[in-house]
Amino acid sequence: MKSNTGTINYMSRLSKDFPAGLVVFLVALPLCLGISLASGAPLFAGIVTGIVGGLVVSWLSGSQLSVSGPAAGLTVIVLNGIETLQTYEAFLLAVVLAGVLQLVLGFLKAGVIGLYFPSSVIRGMLAAIGLILILKQIPHFMGADDDFFGDMNFLQPDGRTTFSELGHAFSAINLGALLVGIISLTILLAWDTAFLKRFKFFKLVPGALIVVLVSVGLNFLFINSFPELAIASSHLVSLPVIGSVQELGNELRLPDFSAFANPSLYVVAFTIAIIASLETLLSVEAVDKLDPHKRRTPTNRELKAQGMGNIIAGMLGGLPMTAVIVRSSANIAAGGETKVSAFIHGVFLLLSVLFLAGFLNQVPLSALAAVLLMVGFKLTKPSLYKGQLKLGAEQFIPFIVTIIAILFTDLLMGILIGLAVGVFFILKANYKSPYFYHKEEQKDKEIIRIQLSEHVSFLNKASIVLTLDHLPQNSHVIIDGDKTEFIDYDVLEAIQEFKKTAHERNIKVEIRNIADVQVLDMH
User: Fold this and answer.
1) Which of 257, 252, 328, 221 has the alpha carbon at shortest distance from 94?
2) Is the predicted pLDDT of residue 111 greater than 80, yes or no?
3) How far is Cα 312 from Cα 102, in angstroms, rounded to an integer?
4) Which residues of 18-49 are buried (b: 16+ CB within 10 A; e: fewer)?
5) Partner residues linked to 509 by β-bridges
6) Which parts pass through the membrane (predicted)?
């Protein structure tokens, strides 16, 4: 397999990318609609962004497997943005400006930020999303949740939490939806078995497609023969039905360019650009870890691709977009190989708007919940937890803290908490290794040699200062920088200050191969 900077034979991968694109479409459709609903935007806005993410961003991006579209993590920002700017058309202008800012960030090479997130935090994010998918889809699986399908936050719009919703679900089960969910999950589990994979049909046709067809058939059977099991419309896909080109045009919105005079516009645009960029960088970093071929995504190119995507989506009336880990992980789980699968998902979204709304509006959400339950399990397998535990506390603790924080807050807040814990362990590791400490007795005095390591940064300052503060009185100290390539100014300053005051403890200080620095007087 060539790297993503080389030429990839997309046609040879089509047998895997086509079914993967179909699976991603089936996952993305209710998410696009649900996120629109939660954002207080027109229902069609999420579909527009999903189409742009599939048809445009997939080719501009350097990632082979990430899928872009409206993100659940931006719903609160969108909701507040529309309220602040008072009209949806003014908000669309903010989306366009956010896209321009992302383009600028790409050209400024700001994509490197994503590389500073520890692997343990990224793995924790994936595991947490897997758990959230399982916890959030169980109520839809049972036909007991009327909240939007793309909800990912701990606190829900109806006042319940992720866990209290589970309790409610068990007391409000829709038997028809549950039967469809169980049959759908059984089909998906069987489809993944090695026995069935021996047959070409089961390799080429995605289980999710069969699940959709069977679930529609079952609900049709319930409506006509067992009305008490019929699934209510609130638990079915709800796509706007468009009968003509004119109706399609009526669904599209254009930005209100007169909003340029509103100072709040720039605050909203900046907020969208920063949050969407950060979520995108974290998502592509996570996707690269899931990629079986371990290809690396060029992050600056990704920011530019997302910027162009948001400019186009904003001009057509769509929500802001990011690279989305739920859709991307569904793509990988379904066997996607190249960016063709993301493009195909965009084609299906477009076709669904133009020709398939009537059929898709008969698909039970419990069937799609079964697909996401499978995706969730693959992201949070027990083997992942065992592997992190074997790596030691400095890897496992940030991992598990990130999971808990995301479960009880939201994606970005959870990642920031996990990052803070990860940085603590990085500081702790640096605290241990800035020098070699050797003590020897000579006649009536102690000689202590402190041999500095090759690179001594400001992160090492605390360790060195504490060591110098605890040196015994009447000792002879040699601080040697012979093997050191770089010493941070903060550390040099600390050494100079120690040298000035050491005589008060009758400590003789000998400094070798370390430059003097001017210590600034703060008085």
Assistant:
1) 257
2) yes
3) 13
4) bbbbbbbbbbbbbbbbbbbbbbbbbebbbbbb
5) 477
6) 20-37, 43-60, 65-82, 88-108, 115-135, 169-189, 201-223, 265-287, 308-330, 342-375, 396-427
Q: Do residues 405 and 413 lie in contact, with contact meaning Cβ atoms separated by under 8 Å?
A: yes
CA distance 509 to 60: 60
Residues 6+ away with beta carbon under 8 Å from 48:
252, 313, 316, 317, 318, 319
- pLDDT of residue 79 exceeding 70, the answer is yes
* Whole-number Å distance between alpha carbons of 77 and 271: 8
Residue 514: the pLDDT is 86
What domains can be seen in the chain, in order of their start residue?
24-153+160-379 (no CATH), 433-512 (3.30.750.24)
Condensed to tens digits (0 to 9), the pLDDT of residues 418-474 reads 999 988 887 776 665 566 677 777 766 678 988 888 888 777 787 788 888 888 888
Question: What does the pLDDT look like over 314-364, one tens digit per residue?
Answer: 999 999 999 999 999 999 999 999 999 999 999 999 999 989 899 999 999
3-class DSSP string for 37-92:
HHHCCCHHHHHHHHHHHHHHHHHHCCCCCCEEEECHHHHHHHHHHHHHHCCHHHHH
Residues 6+ apart with CB under 8 A from 198: none
Q: Name 465's Cβ contacts closer than 8 Å, sequence gap at least 6.
A: 494, 498
Classified as helix, coil or strand, 231 is: coil
Confidence of residue 251 (pLDDT cuts 50, 70, 90): confident
The number of residues in the chain equals 523
Alpha helices per DSSP H over 192-244 = 194-197, 200-204, 207-225
State how far the Cα of 409 lies from the Cα of 420, in Å rounded to an integer.
15
Residue 12, judged by CB atoms within 10 A of its CB (0-12, 13-18, 19+), counts as exposed
CA distance 419 to 113: 13
For the record, the structure tokens of 485 come out as 């390539």
Q: How far apart are CA 312 and CA 333, in angstroms?
A: 29
Residue 7: pLDDT band by 50, 70, 90 thresholds?
A: very low
